[in-house]
Amino acid sequence: MKTILITGGGRGIGAACARLAAQRGYAVAINYQSNRAAADAVAAEIRAAGGRAITIAADVSDETAVERMFARVDEEFGHLDALVNNAGIVDRAARVEDMTAARIDRMMRVNVTGAFLCAREAVRRMSKARGGQGGAIVNISSKAALLGSPNSYVDYAASKAAVETLTIGLAAETARDGIRVNALRPGLIDTEIHAVMGIPDRVARMGPSIPMGRAGTPEEVAQGVLWLLSDEAAYVTGTFLDVTGGR
Ligand code: NAP
């Protein structure tokens, strides 16, 4: 059975990836930080449909916690075929001139260091050069990486640009070790993340300005993620898939 670890898999885009991965036959490890109930609910749904799922608490920015999380995957599944680096945070809308070092550090720790640490642990297990069977990694970036997100969260946009550079470098570094590394850029997707910015109606307000006239759904993002992970994308690495409704 193919296995997958999805960080931040209890809610939003990560939860949609977990459900679709289970439908495609993966045993799914659902990581969460603090919302255990949400992660357990997704796992229960997968098991009720006949699939295999576990939940693992870990803050992806904490190296020891990440190592423990992957050790748990080893124990439960024995091997790892796929990683979705999905866990990510935003902060309240602000201009750069008003950002504290603490805010910027937290953004980088979760969105950048977290993605690096999980990718590192995945590569150590997947790499054919280290006795692994190969695998695939999808990093969840954002269209913000290209737009810069002025007056909202330039720190977040910059963290996603770093995730994109990680994608390019790691893909080239591990291509001959049987690992593919790609990134997906969601546009405006209808999840709870927007409330954290202090703009809970952001999706309703901004949807009409998108070429397709609406925000995307987590399920539409998951379709792209699962394609990038699949054998259908066997010759695709180091690249980016925009799932943005045309913007
Ligand atoms: P969401 O609904 O707010 O869910 C975020 C998930 O990340 C939650 O499961 C949360 O865990 C987890 N998480 C946060 N910090 C974590 C940490 N330190 N360690 C482990 N898990 C952590 O967000 P979303 O909208 O689905 O976003 C998912 C990804 O897509 C993010 O990387 C985001 O930047 C990206 N993205 C989203 C949009 C959008 O419009 N929604 C657009 C572009 C890119 P808990 O459940 O335990 O809190």
UniProtKB/TrEMBL annotation:
Claim: Oxidoreductase is one of the keywords in the record: yes
Domain Ketoreductase: from-to ranges: 2-178
EC top class named in words: oxidoreductase
Classification via CDD domains: SDR_c
Keywords: Oxidoreductase
SUPFAM superfamilies tied to this protein: NAD(P)-binding Rossmann-fold domains
GO molecular-function terms, A-Z: glucose 1-dehydrogenase [NAD(P)+] activity
InterPro entries, sorted: KR_dom, NAD(P)-bd_dom_sf, Sc_DH/Rdtase_CS, SDR_fam
Organism domain of life: Bacteria
Oxidoreductase found in the keyword field: yes
E.C. numbers: 1.1.1.47
Family indicated by similarity: Belongs to the short-chain dehydrogenases/reductases (SDR) family.
UniProt-recorded name of the protein: Glucose 1-dehydrogenase
Organism: Zemynaea arenosa
